[in-house]
Amino acid sequence: MNPTDNARQLFTSRSDQTALRMCLMRGGTSRGAFFLGPDLPADVEKRDQILLSVMGSPHPLQVDGIGGGNSLTSKVGIVSQSPLPEVDLDFEFAQLQPDASSVQTTANCGNMLAAVAPFAVETGLIVPSSDTTEVTVRTTNTGLIATISIRTPQIPGDDRRTVSYDGSTEIDGVSGGSSPISIMFVNTAGSIAPGLLPTGRPIDSLNLPSGDSIEGTMIDNGQPLVLLRARDLGVDGTETPDELMTSNDLGEKIEHLRLEAGRMMGLGDVKDKNYPKMTLLSPPTQGGAIATRSFIPRTVHQSIGVLAALTVATAACMDGTIAHPLADSGDGDQRTLKIEHPSGVFPVDLHIHEGHIIRAGLTRTARMIMAGQVLVPKQVWAPEHSTSDSRIERTHS
Question: Which among 3, 106, 118, 217 is least surrounded, fewest beta carbons within 10 Å?
Answer without folding.
Answer: 3
